[in-house]
Amino acid sequence: MHAALVMAETTVRELPAAAPVYGVVAFGLLIGLLLVTYAFRSVGTRH
Questions:
Q1: Which tens digit of pLDDT belongs to each residue from 3-17?
Q2: What is the rounded CA–CA span in Å between residue 10 and residue 43?
Q3: Which of 37, 34, 16 is nearest to 26 (CA)?
């Protein structure tokens, strides 16, 4: 059991980018989706 704990402590997977970068990318993606949705807001009223 002790050897497994030691190995678990030494095995670390680093993220390819810093943690705040993921939040900024997700926020940018959601803002992009919001803009696409906003661009098509009046499509139904034209027809």
A1: 777 776 676 788 899
A2: 56
A3: 34
